[in-house]
Amino acid sequence: MYQRMMEGLTLTDKLMTDRSSELQAVKSEIMATDMTLLWGSGSPPCWRVMIALEEKNLQGYNHKLLSFEKMEHKSQEVLDINPRGQLPSFKHGDVAVNESYAACFYLESQFKSQGNKLIPDSPAEQALMYQRMFEGLTFYEKLNAVIYYNWFIPEGERHDSALQRNKESLATEIKLWEGYLQKLGSGAHLAGPSFSLADVTVFPTVATLFRFGLSAECYPHLGEYYALLKERPSVKASWPPHWLENPKGQDTLKDI
After folding, report:
1. pTM for the predicted model, two decimal places
2. Beta partners for 37?
3. What stretches in the chain show pLDDT beneath 70?
4. Cβ 42 vs Cβ 210: under 8 Å
5. Out of 164, 180, 190, 219, which residue is the most buried by the measure of CB atoms under 10 Å away?
6. Cα separations (Å) of 7 from 3, 93, 171?
7. Residue 88 backbone phi and psi in degrees, to 5
8. At what angle do helices 44-55 and 100-110 cross, to 10 degrees?
9. Angstrom distance (rounded) from CA 122 to CA 30
10. Burial class of 87 by CB neighbour count within 10 A (0 to 12, 13 to 18, 19+)
11. Could you give the residue ranges of the DSSP H alpha helices within the chain?
12. What is the pLDDT of residue 254?
């Protein structure tokens, strides 16, 4: 009798849990429909926001893929949300949050109890997360200075020596991050054992490194980190579509 009662309670608990999960999913879908993201494929800032949305179970948001090559990021549609004419352009209801780091913080703050927790409780891990997040901005800038050198610098102002200096600066930065991951050990995330906002914001930069030909043999810890996170559901769901169409990538960084 007692066992049957307990089994009945267990079944009831399971049904209640399932029902709660269903209601939460519906609630998430409703909240997401009030969100709009204008984005560009392969843009690390756009990708950061998309990973954060996935992690917070907000998959039903409205989104539109725009082309940087066609200068669609300067369209009136973008300017209405983001007067800087940049992507991502993100809006939740009447609230616009366009800077990618700000959008990630906003999503974690507004949906703290939903999806995956992205800010650790441990003071040490939290401090390391913030440190790596903001170091990640320098990492991204140094990467851009190499892979988009011809895009940023007018033809008449380009110099091989300047590009070489940029490559040397990027190589120094990459070695720094390789050392960070080596110190944390195999299977670690950027701020410790847990996936956090540091990974949300910095992984797209790491993925872009390998997209442009960085050798995982030369940087095994970065390579292991990349292989680990590329299989995470939020990362797979937001993988740049043109990378899927052309998995080969480029070899710009093969000698770094």
Report:
1. 0.88
2. 63, 90
3. 1-31
4. no
5. 190
6. 6, 45, 60
7. -75, 155
8. 10
9. 32
10. buried
11. 2-32, 44-55, 76-79, 100-110, 123-147, 149-152, 160-184, 197-211, 220-229, 233-237, 241-245
12. 93
How many C-beta neighbours within 10 Å does residue 110 have? 14
Both tokens of 4, joined, read 């049957």
pLDDT value at residue 25: 46
CA distances in angstroms from 169 to 53, 145, 162, 163, 173, listed in the order given = 32, 9, 11, 10, 6
Positive or negative, the CA dihedral 80, 81, 84, 87 is negative
Tokens of 127: 């401090």
Please give the DSSP secondary-structure letter assigned to residue 97: -
Closest to 202 (Cα-Cα) out of 142, 153, 256, 243: 142
Token pair 């209801």 is at which residue?
93
Which CA distances in Å does 76 have to 70, 83, 89? 14, 9, 12
